[in-house]
Amino acid sequence: MERLKDFNQFTWIQEETERVDFKKWKGCYISNLIPHRYEHYCKIMHPIYRDLNIEDETLLWSQSDPNDSTPFDFGERLTLKDLAQKYNLQYTKEIRTSTIYHLLGGYPRYLLLPDEEYGQRNP
Questions:
Q1: Geometric angle at alpha carbon 29, from 51 and 27, rounded to 5°
Q2: 3-state class of 39 per DSSP?
Q3: 3 state SS of 93
Q4: What DSSP string runs through 46-75?
Q5: pLDDT digits (tens, 9 = 90+) for 61-106
Q6: What residues contact residue 89 under an 8 Å CB cut-off, 6+ apart?
Q7: How far apart are CA 103 and CA 9, in angstroms?
Q8: What is the pTM of this model?
Q9: Would you tell me how many other CB atoms lie within 10 Å of the CB of residue 36?
Q10: Which residues, including other chains, have CB under 8 Å from residue 92's CB and lie 6 or more apart?
Q11: Residue 71: its pLDDT value, please?
């Protein structure tokens, strides 16, 4: 493998993606990562699990005690498609865990979710 002296070979990626404005953060989108010339992409999702210790599905993470030392009990694995159906949402390529957050005003405590977007938990 040869060490690069500069990144000139990769300027096309910068030219064909939309810049992220970190000062006015609105999230990271596919258009920030994948050059426009690509017509398709594969979205690989981190797993979502149900915490079997939490029975109240209306309880949000923001309402639970941050000092609670109850261990997670990883139960059933869920998909965004499962959650879209449960919460009567349209399942499209744009759906994300933050879609659930915005619908319910927070993340449900019974769900163990990946943190897709920095800052979404404390908007």
A1: 70
A2: coil
A3: coil
A4: PPEEEETT---TT-BGGGS-TT--PPP-EE
A5: 999 988 888 889 999 999 999 999 999 999 988 888 889 999 999 9
A6: 83, 95, 99, 100, 103
A7: 43
A8: 0.65
A9: 10
A10: none
A11: 87
Residues whose CB is less than 8 angstroms from the CB of residue 123 and which lie 6 or more positions away in sequence, other chains included: none
pLDDT at 6: 87
pLDDT tens string 10-37: 899 999 999 988 998 887 788 888 999 9
Strands of 111-112's sheet in order across: 74-78, 48-51, 111-112
Alpha carbon distance 95, 8 (integer Å):
35
Kindly tell me the sign of the dihedral angle through the C-alpha atoms of 57, 63, 66, 68.
negative
Nearest to 48 by CA among 2, 118, 100: 100
Contacting residues for 104 by C-beta, under 8 A, at least 6 apart: 60, 87
Whether residue 123 is predicted with pLDDT greater than 60 in this model: the reply is no
